[in-house]
UniProtKB/TrEMBL annotation:
<dbReference type="InterPro" id="IPR050217">
    <property type="entry name" value="Peroxiredoxin"/>
</dbReference>
<protein>
    <recommendedName>
        <fullName>thioredoxin-dependent peroxiredoxin</fullName>
        <ecNumber>1.11.1.24</ecNumber>
    </recommendedName>
</protein>
<dbReference type="GO" id="GO:0006979">
    <property type="term" value="P:response to oxidative stress"/>
</dbReference>
<feature type="active site" description="Cysteine sulfenic acid (-SOH) intermediate; for peroxidase activity">
    <location>
        <position position="61"/>
    </location>
</feature>
<feature type="domain" description="Thioredoxin">
    <location>
        <begin position="16"/>
        <end position="162"/>
    </location>
</feature>
<dbReference type="Pfam" id="PF00578">
    <property type="entry name" value="AhpC-TSA"/>
</dbReference>
<keyword id="KW-0963">Cytoplasm</keyword>
<dbReference type="InterPro" id="IPR036249">
    <property type="entry name" value="Thioredoxin-like_sf"/>
</dbReference>
<dbReference type="InterPro" id="IPR024706">
    <property type="entry name" value="Peroxiredoxin_AhpC-typ"/>
</dbReference>
<dbReference type="InterPro" id="IPR000866">
    <property type="entry name" value="AhpC/TSA"/>
</dbReference>
<dbReference type="GO" id="GO:0005739">
    <property type="term" value="C:mitochondrion"/>
</dbReference>
<dbReference type="GO" id="GO:0008379">
    <property type="term" value="F:thioredoxin peroxidase activity"/>
</dbReference>
<comment type="similarity">
    <text>Belongs to the peroxiredoxin family. AhpC/Prx1 subfamily.</text>
</comment>
<keyword id="KW-0676">Redox-active center</keyword>
<keyword id="KW-0575">Peroxidase</keyword>
<keyword id="KW-0560">Oxidoreductase</keyword>
<keyword id="KW-1015">Disulfide bond</keyword>
Length: 162
């Protein structure tokens, strides 16, 4: 598919900066319990909330991921998509989605959960902790033209509220 808006092209920059083009990504995600390639350009023409979390099967992460997922319709009503990213494999994401919420899992998820196993996306967005090999809790609002409009990065123990 040809890109219609020349502003919505992959960034040559390797770090997300407000008012600049968002770093391009393409990776495998779990979407409705299926594996699917998800690309930044899939969201052209819509706002995107792209958020990073450290690891699957941890204690703070499911509460914020579930909160985003449970309010997905509110985001869609604002012509906004929500996508989660971690350095875990897509197989780990699927296992977490297949685990019931009462057992520490995510249960049914509607939003894509991207596998950043190579850690390139986390690095490109400036949230990777290299020594630990995991991402900080980063949240990026990207506009319909692929421009980063807002960045929030939290330390590992600091959760987020939708």
């Amino acid at each position: 598919m040809a890109v219609k808006n020349p502003l919505w092209m992959p960034s040559r920059s390797m770090s997300a900066i407000v008012q600049r083009q968002a770093p391009y990504f393409a990776a495998t995600a779990v979407v409705d319990k299926q594996f699917k390639e998800v690309k930044l350009t899939d969201f052209q023409g819509k706002y995107l909330v792209l958020f990073f979390y450290p690891l699957d099967f941890t204690f703070v992460c499911p509460t914020e991921i579930i909160a985003f997922n449970d309010r997905l319709k509110e985001f869609h009503d604002l012509d906004t998509e929500v996508v989660a990213v971690s350095v875990d494999s897509h197989f780990s994401h699927l296992a977490w989605c297949n685990t019931p919420r009462k057992q520490g899992g995510l249960g049914g998820m509607k939003m894509p959960i991207i596998s950043d196993l190579t850690k390139k996306i986390s690095e490109d967005y400036g949230v990777l902790i290299p020594d630990a090999g995991i991402a900080l809790r980063g949240l990026f609002i990207i506009d319909a033209n692929g421009i980063v409009r807002q960045i929030t990065i939290n330390d590992l123990p600091v959760g987020r509220s939708v």
